[in-house]
Amino acid sequence: MTTNRRKKVVKYRGSQTHGGGAKKKRRGAGHRGGRGLAGSGKRAHHQKQRIFQIYGKDYFGRKGFFNPNVKVKTKAINILSIEENLQSLLKNKLITEKDGFIHVELKKLGYNKLLSAGKPTKKYKIVAQFSTKKAQEKIKSAGGEIVS
C-alpha cells in the first residue's frame, strides 16, 4: 500500500527564505544577472563574439515579417536598348515579327517597365506592365502600340 508523502515545500512553511539564505537572495532574475543572454553587450561587446560562434551572425538585429503587398519593384528597359539589340533578340526568338509589327513581351525579356530613351524606327507592339507617357507617345507616333 502506498503512503502519502508530504511535498518538500511543506517543511519550509514558516521560514521566510525557504533555505535560500538572506531575504534578498533568490528574489528574481536580477540576482542571476538577467534572463537568458542578457548583458551580452557589456564589457566592450566581448560576449558577442561567443554568441556569434554559438548562434551565428543572425542572432542580433531586426527580424520580422515580409510584406508581400509592398510596391512592385520595377525593372526598366529603354526603347533604345530594344532598338540596338533587335537583331539578336529576333535571332534568339525572344521577340517575334508578324503582321508588320514587332511583338515584344517585356516579361519574357525580364523587364516590366518601358522607358522613353531612344527613337523607335519600326512598328512595335509591346506588352508591358508599366510604361511612361513619353514612351507611349513615341511608340504610337511610330505606328505601334503598347498593351498593358
Secondary structure: elements and pairs:
Elements: H1 42-55, E1 76-78, H2 79-84, H3 86-91, E2 96-98, E3 101-105, H4 106-109, E4 113-115, E5 124-127, E6 130-131, H5 133-141, E7 145-147
Parallel strand pairs: 1-4, 3-5, 4-6, 5-7
Antiparallel strand pairs: 2-3
What does this structure look like?
It is a single chain. This protein is an alpha/beta fold and 148 residues long. The chain has two domains: 34-65, no CATH class; 76-147, Ribosomal Protein L15, Chain: K, domain 2, CATH 3.100.10. It is built from five helices and seven strands; from the N terminus they run αβααββαβββαβ. It has helices at residues 42-55, 79-84, 86-91, 106-109, 133-141; strands at residues 76-78, 96-98, 101-105, 113-115, 124-127, 130-131, 145-147. The strands form two sheets. The protein has a four-stranded mixed beta sheet. The radius of gyration is 35 Å and the shape is rod-shaped. The model has no long low-confidence stretch (mean pLDDT 85).
Can you summarize this structure?
The protein is α/β, with parallel strands linked by helices. It has helices spanning 42-55, 79-84, 86-91, 106-109, 133-141, and strands at residues 76-78, 96-98, 101-105, 113-115, 124-127, 130-131, 145-147. It has two domains: 34-65, no CATH class; 76-147, Ribosomal Protein L15, Chain: K, domain 2.
Give the SSE string: HEHHEEHEEEHE
**What fraction of residues sit in β-strands?**
15-25%
Tell me the number of strands.
7
C-alpha geometry: rod-shaped
Cα-based radius of gyration, to the nearest Å = 35 Å
Total of domains: 2
CATH architectural designation of the largest domain: Ribosomal Protein L15, Chain: K, domain 2
The separation of the N and C termini measures 85 Å
| Unreliable stretches | none
User: Largest sheet, if any?
Assistant: 4 strands, mixed
Fold-level CATH name of the largest domain: Ribosomal Protein L15, Chain: K, domain 2
Percent helix range? 25-40%
The assembly state of the depicted protein chains is single chain
Q: Return the CATH class of the largest domain.
A: Alpha Beta
Strand order of the largest sheet: 2-3-5-7
- Mean model confidence by pLDDT: 85
**How does the helix and strand content classify structurally?**
alpha/beta
